[in-house]
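Let us practice reading a record.
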Amino acid sequence: MEKRDKILYAALELFATEGYNAVSTNKIAKYANVSEGLIFRHYKNKQGLLDAILEQAFEKVTVLYAHILMEQDPKEILRKAIVLPFEVDESEYHFWKLQFKLKWELEISGREKMQPFIDKLEWAFQELGYQEAKNEAELLNHALEGIAGGIIKQGFETQEPLKSFLLKKYNV
């Protein structure tokens, strides 16, 4: 693994487990087994490091949701959205855990990056004749976010009943 990648991985893991504010660049350097100066050379400061992680997050979200955004069958859009949190590889949990932490710790929501997904859900609900398509889309998005958090904290099996419930609720 390249030193730059080691730094990013160490920062991601430490930020996800301990929180952004609780982790120093010195601690990241020790965890990555690199000099603190190397962090500053590559990322300028701790914020630069976080920005690099967030950029990766936005790229991952784009890839993760691409197949839903391209889908034209409204029922299939809902089905794919509901099963999506269950398809995330366990090796990615630190990454997603950090996204949840940042929402609360630094009030970084990434809402603008999620808007195309929410818009696609709204379109699907409109196509299926739901009276309050916008509210259904928001509700499903919030439910999926909660399920994703539950998976990260407690594992897939704890959230399976909710997946089944949603698939049945929306008849997909």
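A brief commentary: The first helix runs from residue 3 to 18.
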